[in-house]
What does this fold into?
Amino acid sequence: MTTSARNRSPLLRLLFAAEAVRAAIWPQRMRPATGWAFLLPAVLLVAILVAGMAYMVDASFHELDRSTFRLTEEYSLTNYETVLERPFYSTIIIRTVLAAVIVTAITLVLAFPYAYAMVRTKRAATRKLLLIGLFLPFFIGQVVRAYGWLIVLGQEGLLNSTLTWMGLGTVKLIYTYPGVLIGLVQYMLPFAVLMLAPAVTAVPEEVELASDSLGAGWFATLWHVLLPMTKPGLVAAGVVVFTLTITDYAMPEIMGGGTSDFIASAIYDGYFSTDEQGLSSALAVLLVLGATTVVGVVFALVGVGTLGYSARRLR
Amino acid sequence: MTKTTLTGTRRFLLPRRRLLAGAGALGASATIGGSALLSRLARAQDVEKPEEIIVRAWGGVWVESLDAGVSQPFTAATGIAVRHDLTEDNEIRPRIWSAVDQGRVPPIHVNWDTTTNATKSALRGVTEDLSDLANLEGLLPAAQPAGFDSYPIVNTYSYVYVLAYREEAFPEGPPTSWNVMLEERFKGRVALYDDGIGFHPVAVILGGGTIDDIPDNMEPGWDWLRRLKAQEPLLGEDPDFTTWFQNGEIDVACTIISNAREAKMNGIPVAWTVPQEGAKVDTDGLWIPKGLPENELYWAKEYVNFALSPAAMETWCNGLGLPPTRPGLTPPEDLAGDPAYPTTQEDFARLISVPTPVLVEHEADWFAKFNEIMQG
It folds into this structure.
């Protein structure tokens, strides 16, 4: 270290020391690889996931030997045949996919006005209230929220007590498929709003004013201006909500009361209850393939540009 | 290597001679158990004590009873703390299996498990042999798992899946048949376990079959369950039954007697009965996973041995309201003479027992079929 460096402030000396360490670990000649180095953690993470998936794919081709409770050595398609043959699995696959579609549609319909109001409101108090409403659910886990719904929707719950008080009788929502959907929509709503808000923010308010001044009503502005311009946010939110719903476990378990299992429930049961690791792996592989295909088709139809990456930039 | 064999379905038989001999020998066995224990503990001074023994257990009344009857006295006798791991039995099993397969130390020392699930672990070869435990002496034959010459598991008590009911719903007296679940007035107010555990063999009988039909002809049971589905039953786990009874959401349920008894003790107006068709009886047990350091294995075995001693077993099982596999212990006052607390051959004759090897081989398929019916 030079004399002038020693005379510098402690902070500067610390920075010089850090730079010296950096130079020792990552010399100048390796600079072209710096970008890849930053990618390394993400690559490692994906590699671990891929390794796990590879293990699962391998396990899916081995049947359980119930005399030893280990997977057989031989490769076979038995687990996939079982998934296709048992009506139970086709039922839960249809139920799960249908739920993912319904929940995604309802969530986007509800999330858009929320995000719009949150972004466009002029009143700071209203924005704060909406932000609190958005972030508060993130502090409450999914299981707790599901139990909250049990209290609200239960036979003796808040909803039925109110309906009874009003002389309207009772409705059974808890431990039903609609009950599961209600719980899922409530769970997914903040995710969707969070992804839609930047998309709405990116639409200049002047564009709406221009549309208005040119004689378009609010619906025409929504249909021809806002929705097309917020498409990246809508697609991103839709993809996130769809994939989270199709893989959800807790809400169907708690809100369904054992009557509305999703694919994840069957996977869990196979791994932990009946020790059918091979069968569960086959289900997991099919789930990943199915969800990936849907997302791939969506991107193929609307383009990756919806996520903010133009084809030119990608090239 | 142990090997299991399938045997036919049978009623749970308690050998009378063994029962009488066991009852008569209780005092002696208590003494032997106590003195042998002290002797073993004295010898144990040479074996390094671990800081704690980790025992997997179920929560609520289950762990409280184990703590009062076994864990606390064990700690008092040895100075070794006992930590109860309340991880679900189904979730700890794969962890133990992978730990043993990978040569790692398993996450627990002692697993309190259902005999069916424990047998799966034994068949996989991940359980230690407990045949050298001194307090196996005097236990009923049911303490030894079916299909094994050794003791990879020690069955510690039996339990009955009773018909639990809300007393207000039956002012005329307890229901006499499981068929009460099909009555129109109980639509939406019936509950079973979410995989139908404890009910499959009963359903076969309700559907017009016999216990000899199990496992080859379960169709009568599936037919009966299809009729039950129209009643929109609630399907859940142990804690759900208590919640549902507490909230007045169900009137009848098939659940383990301990859960119904705990609910009753907590002031929930619940009673239980063994209907005329019978009720399924099963067993739980203790086992030790392979892969423990030698000294920890020694003390884990001491823990299991301690749990099998008459005094520990009596307190533990009375807390649960379940008959232990050691004969002659004093039953809890509120359960004396209760058919759901079987102690005599006549009591067991009213119950339905499916041999563990049959359950191990077929139960997963029954769960799948049950789900197919209830969620189809």
The interface with chain A takes residues 4, 88, 90-91, 93-94, 120-121, 123-125, 188, 194-195, 234-236, 240, 247-249, 360-361, 363-364, 367-368, 371-372, 374-376 of chain B (CB under 8 Å). The longest strand of chain B covers residues 154-166. The longest helix of chain B spans residues 356-375. Chain B has two domains: 16-159+282-349, 160-280+354-375.
